[in-house]
Amino acid sequence: MMKKIIFIVAFLIFLAHVSAQEIKKIKITELESYIHHCDHPLIVNFWATFCGPCVKEIPDFQLIVSKYKDRGVELLLVSLDLPESYPSKISSFASEKKFTSPIVWLNETNADYFCPKIDKNWSGGIPSSLFINNQKHYRHFFERELNSVQVEENIKAML
User: Fold this and answer.
1) How many CA atoms does the CB half-sphere of 16 hold within 13 Å?
2) Is the peptide bond before 127 cis (omega within 30 degrees of 0)?
3) Kind and range of the H or E element at 4?
4) Cis peptide before 53, with omega less than 30 degrees from 0?
5) Is the CATH number of domain 22-158 3.40.30.10?
6) What is the C-alpha to C-alpha distance for residues 55 and 45, in angstroms, rounded to an integer?
7) Which residues neighbour 64 within 8 Å (Cβ) at sequence distance 6 or greater?
8) Where along the chain do its domains lie?
9) What torsion do the CA atoms of 91, 94, 97, 98 make, to the nearest 10 degrees?
10) Closest CA to 143 of 117, 119, 112
């Protein structure tokens, strides 16, 4: 009986580690390069754990993007959380909210520097999303929360 309990506890610990998402730290130049060289439709969603509208829209993004997986659409979640949240708070929050898309943490503090590298008119507000398809020269940036209809319309437009 004791071996069975130990096995179950060990298995649960293993599952906790498997489900915890690794959050990579990146600089804006790395993100810029990825966006510029991306050869498939990409949505870059800028969010933070403390942003209610951000957290509200991510499940819709994930669900709709999954419908277009066979068309190569990728959703990249870029956390703009404060440095003290990286990586443990972001990772545990993402696990709790069942965020399955890749997440990176933008290791930048100067919005005046990094925002114009994404969109020249971005004031730094979140949620914000960039829809891009380099193959079709499609680029559309939103500095606001999007509903599921708007997400799907923009995915269709970039395809």
Assistant:
1) 9
2) yes
3) helix 2-19
4) no
5) yes
6) 11
7) 148, 151, 152, 155
8) 22-158
9) -110
10) 119
Residues in the chain: 159
- Dihedral of alpha carbons 135, 36, 80, 66, sign: positive
Contact at 8 Å (CB) between 98 and 120? no
Q: Could you read off the pLDDT of 98-147 as tens digits, one per residue?
A: 999 999 999 999 999 999 999 999 999 999 999 999 999 999 999 999 99
* Residue 3 confidence (pLDDT): 55
pTM: 0.87
52, two tokens: 């209610």
For residues 107 and 31, the answer to whether their CB atoms sit within 8 Å is: no
Query: Does residue 95 surpass a pLDDT of 80?
Result: yes
